[in-house]
Amino acid sequence: AALGALQVRQFPENITAIFDNAASNPAYLQSNPSEAQKLATSVRQAFNLESARLSGFKLAAPNKDGVANISVGSAVLANVSSSHIDNIVVSSASLSDPGGVIGLRSLEFADINMPLDGDRAAVAAGAANLGGKAIVPTFGRVAAEGLDVRVGDVTFGLDKLQVAMSYFVGPTPTNLKATLDHLKFSVAQVANP
To answer: What angle separates helix 16-24 from helix 33-45, to the nearest 10 degrees?
Structure first.
């Protein structure tokens, strides 16, 4: 495992008055929730993790067919902040058990935007209507390469699948582009009506 640099940036706005008021009055943040939210958001947005990497992960766990083996060659997170992740990439992943094998050369989630703090607070408070705002992360791109599935009588694979999403209205993308390269399967698996 390896961690990149932890970067610190200036607060997006001056919050000195909030610190001063909280220092002189211990109940200030509790009685001023909007100021407490502003302080928490500013502190969270001040930090950014350049990268995190995990290599050579393996796990064996019992399942109904025997033992399931999970392995990941590497998993990388890049440019992680409280509101955005540039990308998450998992490489050389496989899941196998006596029933079959699922392998994947790479899986990437890119341009991940987290819900805004106010939206998360509204959900926590039980708000029924957020006016179309996102309460789940949005993804700019999801891509998979080198999928190989051999489970029982089912065998298929693909070289590449990529879905790019943009122009979000709340959590819903209004522009979607999908690419699928070289879907492979045995025609004997397709039922003839």
So the answer is: 130
How many C-beta atoms surround the C-beta of residue 188 within 10 A? 8
Cβ atoms 114, 136 nearer than 8 A: no
Residues 6+ apart with CB under 8 A from 20: none
Residue 67's contacts (CB-CB under 8 Å, 6 or more residues apart) are 60, 61, 97, 98
Q: Is the pTM of this model over 0.85?
A: no
- Residues 125-166 have pLDDT tens digits of 554 555 545 567 889 999 999 999 998 888 899 999 999 998
The tokens for 45 are 């947005």
Burial 9-30 (b: 16+ CB within 10 A, else e): eeeeeebeebeeebeeeeebbe
